[in-house]
Amino acid sequence: MSYITGVSRGQVVLFPESIDDYISEDNPLRFIDAFVEHMDLHKLGFIRAEPAKTGRPGYEPKDLLKLYIYGYKNRITSSRRLEQETHRNMEVVWLLRRLRPDFKTLSDFRKDNVKAFKSVFRQFTLLCNVLDLFSGELVAIDGTKIKGVNNISRNYSKPLLQEKLKEINRRIDAYLKDIEETDEREPDRPRLTAVALKEKINGLEAKKGEYKNMLEAMEQSGETQISLTDSDSRSFPKKFGVPVGYNAQAAVDEKHHLIVEQEVTNAVTDIDQLSAMAIKSKEALGVERLKVVADAGYCNAKEIKACEEAGIETYTPKINTSNSTKKGLYGKEQFTYDATNNCYHCPAGKKLSYRFEGYEKRRDKQRSVLYYVGESCQRCEQKPLCTESKDPRRITRCPEEDAIDRMQARMKQHPEIIKKRKQIVEHPFGTIKFWNHQNAFLMKGLEKVRAEFSLSTLAYNMKRVINIVGVEKMIEALV
Ligand code: SF4
User: Fold this and answer.
1) CB count, 10 Å around CB of 476?
2) What is the DSSP annotation of 321-365?
3) 367 CA to middle of ligand 1, Å?
4) Is 135-145+246-318+408-446 a CATH 2.140.10.10 domain?
5) 380 lines ligand 1 (CB under 6 A)
6) Which atom of ligand 1 is found nearest the CA of 392?
7) Which one of 90, 134, 310, 426 is separated from 370 by 20 to 30 angstroms, measured CA to CA?
8) pTM of the predicted model, to two decimals?
9) pLDDT per residue over 418-433, tens digit each?
10) Do residues 346 and 330 make contact, with C-beta atoms less than 8 angstroms apart?
11) DSSP 3-state assignment of 458?
């Protein structure tokens, strides 16, 4: 039995007469081309979107943008690899009409237009609205950590620097002791000469100065960590599996799992991200009211209240952080808030009345809290089950906590919404990170990684819409 064989390399073949014949009518390239041609890049903030009147002609930004969209859609994100594709890839030859910009031109284009890529993502969202691909009722918000360029060994936190300074001082003391003891050294124990020891001490002193400067810079900026290679990136707890990087946020619509809004921050947690993402999603969808579901990491009374004021219903589970519950005592969840009388009722049916407003420090921030204190605790038989203190039981409440109470009432009415969260939001992140190989940023700095994420999310949305409605309808919708 023989094998299927290819055509001889020396054989004369008749190629199609134009490059266009190589690209089928339903090839996504045709949409990328039409989509970029349809946009006014000058209005979207791209530089050099209008040709210069004098000098050597440059590449048209539209051509470079088409190449980047094609690249991100096909897992080619580096400018060097994109340059290679312009030489060997028939689709790219068609898309760029045989133009071959070098990697420097491509990389400069991405760097110089970092803010404009977000507008391109928005233009595609508008198109999805035209095609009626959003439900406009429920979006799920989630964040994922994406690795940055900065290595963990080039990231320092205050405790780490303090630890390093202690270690340096200990080593300097040991070297000084060694210099003093040179005469009494044991003959069989190899030691450095006094000159070599002094050199080592000087090296350590220089390092010490560097660490002290970093600590001072942190004091002045109020930051809790410093990254030397990419100053905007942050280190994350080990559980995230990304030592140093960025926090990428996405709001995903329920209907087709399309991304409505996206952002990249360097916030270590998601706790302050809910309202900004929800409000921008509502604007992008152009709706009067919106339901937003997110995981417990977003549960923040201030954020939930801000959403309520913007006409957004939130659904986020509340984590029980009560120390009393951990100790097996009555937890806060067993106390009922009475809004009419502004007091709490305890499991023994007694009242905890409002006493004063104070401040507590949480996640490096001062926040205002209201204190409620038990009226009848000293005579209560259940006190050993309630508090370990000899003082009456205290309950704290933040001023916006009524928003959480209302949200919990909503969640009781609609338990199905929380169940939908995972299936809506985890699909895009899974696809972007693992299918599209976007699990690390290539550029340094918040603005630049935002541009990268805008292109990644645009590529995700584009692929999905092509699968849902097809290239032809997408091009029709542009007109
Ligand atoms: S100790 Fe105070 S708050 Fe606790 S159950 Fe008794 S009365 Fe209620």
Assistant:
1) 12
2) --HHHHTTS--GGGSEEETTTTEEE-TTS-EEEEEEEEEEEETTE
3) 26
4) no
5) yes
6) 2
7) 310
8) 0.86
9) 999 988 988 899 899 8
10) yes
11) helix
